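[Backbone geometry]
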Amino acid sequence: MTRSFKAVTRIAGLAVIVAAFGALMLWQVLPPPPFTDSIHVFRAARLWPDIPVDAAPLHQMCRVGLLLPSWAAQQILGYGQAAYYATSLFLMSFFAVGCYLSGRVLFGDGVGLFTVVLLLVHPFFTIVDPYVESVNASTGGILPDAPAAGLFAIGFAAVVVAARRDGRAQAGLLLASGVVLGAAFLCREFVAFMYAAVPVFFLLLGIPLRRILLVAAPVAGVAALGMLHNELVFGDAFVTLHAAESVADGGASIPWYVALGRLFEAMLTSHWQGAVLLTGLALTIVGWALTRDRGLALCLVWFLSLWIPLTLLGGVLNGKDPDFEWGYLPRYWTPIFPPLIVGGLGTAVILSRRIRAGLPRTITTTAVASALLLVYLVLTVQQIQPVERDAAWNELRGWLAKHQNLTLIWTDSYSAQTLQFYTRSPFGRPLWHGRVETFLHERALLPGKVTGPLLHTRYGAKTPPSLESGWRSIWKSSDGATLSVWIREPKTDPRCADCGPPHLARP
């Protein structure tokens, strides 16, 4: 067995381990399918390839990199929670593997593994149950950000390794990088901005620029396949671009100075531990200034490849009508999370190697890194524990299955999207055969047409049902807070003239 084969086998084994760690973290938090873009993608996958051209929101339903894995999971596991989570796990595995590989190729296995752990236990990836608390809605969903980040990171790692090879080996790695970078675009469109970093990577790594065609050709090929898919399914090869343009129209004005600070706003206002990512950025900048290390320079170029375009489009160029309005949300910056953590850890490794102290440098590095990681893990694990997975919704599933005499249930438009998964078994078998009616989420008062039974969540009316307003609770989740079902008493609510009795069929 050759040395190179042993190395590849070892790296592949570690990649499988980090993917399994991603699965473990997903199992640990396991949020109910949220009402975000994820469900729209999942619903579109059920219709594929017969997705209506007027489907809404179309920009979320035409991302091939999310659509096809969702469709494949549904063919195997049915239209239910199992397929939803399987798709989420598959997409998150790219992120975990990409974080590991990008850290490894620059600063070694330790940095690669630490990067995976630091990110996947971060509150941005664990506080994700929107019915309890959510700061990023990235883990446990079918969203474009994490898989796009992971695929770009894998492509980046392939370019770095290619710089250490020559001839056919280098050509093969560059071609593989192009395929993966192209796949990242099929998940998240603005990854195309980040392609501008590739020639800079080549210059920093000493790869002849003429060889960039080996990356560009497969990127173009993958993009062409995506366009062919869109032409066949939607009748418009550029449907992704056109749909994105329609969403960007009519935004609120954003002052240029607010746009400049969007990244920092996203990191600090959602959760205080977002400061960890900004600390990584600061360390990367300081480390490069002190050492001029090429690995740190690559991390900074990677960071700037997304920060510059999103900041410019977010209000610096056209504050009155910005093309990108969502920079205050952490998940849109996910594609630059890996270089922030890799760069920060890389700086720590480089500077620790320069320390001249009584203890051996390896012991010093290991001791400091282990102590910091332990403190970080204690702080983040404390954030994970309060998340109750989808326990409340599973309880509701069992309760509905036993109450077939309930022929109608009202709820808000957000909760109705999640509820569709819990009227079925995890593998898609219908368990409750009633009808769901909706009203707009987070309105001030319940509309008069709601005659009950009513599923109430934190996204229901801001004035919740109560005994005083003529409602009686018939079921609550065991935590007493997340979910509850109410019926209206025969006596009508004095604020509502057309309220009637509960809508129950005879058993």
Summary: The radius of gyration is 25 Å. The first strand starts at residue 128 and ends at 129. The longest helix spans residues 3-29. The chain has 21 helices and seven strands.
